[in-house]
Amino acid sequence: MNTKDLAYFCQLVDHKNYTATAKYFGVSQPTITMAIKRLEKEYGNVPLITQPYPRASLVVTRAGKVLYQQACDILNRLQTTQTEVLHAAEDSIRLGISPVAGVTWFPKVANQLLKTNLLSDLEVHEAGSQQLLKDLVNGQIDAALLATVQPLKDPEFKTLLLAIHPFKIIVSDHHPLAQRDAVSFSELRQERFITMTNHYIHARALEAYSRVAQFTPNVVYRTSELSMVKALVRKNVGVSLLVETAVDQDLGIHTLALTDAPPTLSYMYLVTRASFHPTKKQAFFIQLFREKGR
């Protein structure tokens, strides 16, 4: 089977247009047509894509939908394999770091990495946890230091659980709640909220707490910068729900424990692909986190 034919097929399903697909690959339209015919012949002359009449929209058959799903998976895995093979000879460590997990855990091993001359071998990519998992799957990074709001159980990954942390509420020192040490989430119904964008765990944690408390939070600002969240809370623009380790005696900010039974927690992980074969240097790097997580 020609993997190029699979690529043509997947793009045709996405574009629903032979001309657009041909233009995407820089080939002639008959090239795409012949590729689809080869695939249909390969699978016992089962129609994959039909067109009821000239100029009508293309229709993907049930068999076509099955092939599309499998073909996309095959092509993605081939791309990941190619990326892994290209980087196999390299001894650098391509590490993805999410904001909170990075601030919490990376400093714990930084000195050891410096002493062993590994710090300069790091290629750091910063992003939200969900994006880092995608980058792992695609082979763009070798390992990720990230946080999730649920235990991470996926056969595509090897996971090292470093810690589990609760979420807390932060308010300005000038907020009335700054006189208290704890609060129920339901008491925050009338508050303005500052939160991280949907790529980060804090947005999902806020949804979980709000769902249990049965109210929709008044989110007045979303940002991808943790420092911006704290700056706005410090100015009393709103309150925020942050994982415990993201707040470390920040000036002008008061932290409150939540009295509710937690609907979710923050799980800190070091994650690699299940197919990842580390070099000695990369394995040593992973071992450092394993020792710190004990």
UniProtKB/TrEMBL annotation:
Signal peptide: none annotated. The keyword Transcription regulation applies. The keyword Ion transport does not apply. Keywords: DNA-binding, Transcription, Transcription regulation. Pfam families: HTH_1, LysR_substrate. One of its GO terms (molecular function) is DNA binding. Residues 1-44 form the HTH lysR-type domain. SUPFAM superfamilies: Periplasmic binding protein-like II (SSF53850), Winged helix' DNA-binding domain (SSF46785). One of its GO terms (cellular component) is protein-DNA complex. Belongs to the LysR transcriptional regulatory family. PANTHER family: HTH-TYPE TRANSCRIPTIONAL REGULATOR CYNR (PTHR30346:SF28), TRANSCRIPTIONAL DUAL REGULATOR HCAR-RELATED (PTHR30346). This is HTH lysR-type domain-containing protein. It comes from Secundilactobacillus collinoides.
